[in-house]
Amino acid sequence: MSILKKLLLVLSVVPMAVNYPFFPPTCYSKALSMAAELSQMAADLKIGYETGHCMAHMPDLYLDIHNACVMHKIRDYISMVEHLRLRRCAYTKEVRKLEVTLRQLFIILGQKCHGDLVFTIYDCAALERPYYPYYPY
């Protein structure tokens, strides 16, 4: 019976040890993952059943944290989402989550990661098209 208990203990500890991140996420990696998540979330809201009718006029959200115009783009998108209050979809949980997460990314980029980020380009038009870092255009 003790062998079974030891085996269960080993089988429960090994997956936790394998999945445990051995390094904490940096400010840069957090901002990068949030930007990708927000771009996908906005795209999903545009085609969603409950939110598609009022999000259809919203521009596509492509966030590249290496672009110096990203702060302006986030601020403008937050403003547009706030003005959706006139429509019913602005009160859905998904739209509210998009707004809150955009604000969090704005704060992270502006205050928390201010010294860690290096803007390599200043091309506001580039934020209007999808960014694929691994595929050439």
TrEMBL record:
Tell me what organism the protein belongs to. Answer: Cyprinodon variegatus (Sheepshead minnow)
* The protein, known as: Zmp:0000001268
Q: Which UniProt keywords apply?
A: Signal
Per the UniProt entry, the signal peptide is: 1-19
| Pfam families for this protein | CYTL1
- GO BP terms, alphabetized: positive regulation of transcription by RNA polymerase II
